[in-house]
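Researcher: Please translate sequence to structure tokens.
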Amino acid sequence: MVKYLEKELRIIWLDSFVGLEYKHKVEIYKFIKDAKRIGQGLENAREYIIANVGQNEYTTMQNSLNQAYLDYILEELDRKGIVAITFESEDYPSSFMQIPLPPFVLYAKGNIDLLKNEIFGIVGSRKSLPLSITLAEDYSKSLLDAGLTLVTGIAEGVDSAVLRSGVQNKGNIISIIAGGIDNVYPISNLELLNKVSDCGLVISEQPPKVVPKPYFFPIRNRLISALSKGVLIVSGAIKSGTLYTAEYAEEYGKDLFAIPYSVGIKSGEGCNDLIKRGAILTDTPQDILDYYNLTSKNKKIELSQAEKDVCKILSNGQMHIEKISSALNKRTFEITPILSQLEMKKMIVKSANVYSLVHSYSEE
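Model: Translation complete:
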């Protein structure tokens, strides 16, 4: 079992009362922080608690002032493999102390040493094009191979693509979830999140049993931006929740990157708007690597001449298979195996019978 300092135990105890709002926890902690005994501190806070939270909550806290209750909390965390990192803990990220409303406690499952690494955020919309998902995987692999630790959420779409890439490539990956670790949303990603905790790190500022509420998600996004040196927005509509992460990145003075999209693609309109407002345009992972003077260990993808011809055609934009065939003066059945090979090499992505290049292509 993890050994916590007395000041950490007081915070863990206080944070266990999930009915308390953040602002009340902060005020109550001022009373108990330096008290000789936590009970004395709670008594000093009695008037504040009753006036602002209620008599019932004060009575509940008072009845929980015993070693058995604290032992129960710690044993439950230990049983689930969760470490509580308070803002008084040595492992608490310093970047969180630079933002408004820093998390009271981080509940972490996995390798907490990743919090000390150079971290980069990648996020995107749940409703993204197949091209966006492939781009997320492509960028993730390149940045992981360059030595960065990646952080994202747990939503379907881009977030899941980033996590899958981290798991598959055995890279350093962090997922910050909105609810408690016992209540993963969406539940369909529980298996993926378990794999992330095995090879990377899962963290939440909510106690394990807390069920995520709608407003938890945008405030969770502040942690992704705060933890990152830079953030990439892969996709997002104008009113996408993803843009909360971008706004926090701007507010915190982090480098903000966005992938551009063609006119009329709803899930890319937010990215284009960010670029208009000053976000750094990126259409290949190399842009970010060059920005930070990093080198990816990715091997160059070898292409046959036929594959190069297809990529050259698609460099002008997405195209239906029949138009590709016509442009290359070949029959559809002759083109199909070439397209399949390029899909396997993740050079192109298919939506119905329309193909798009994953990133810019030029013959060397």
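Researcher: Any highlights?
Model: The first helix runs from residue 6 to 15.
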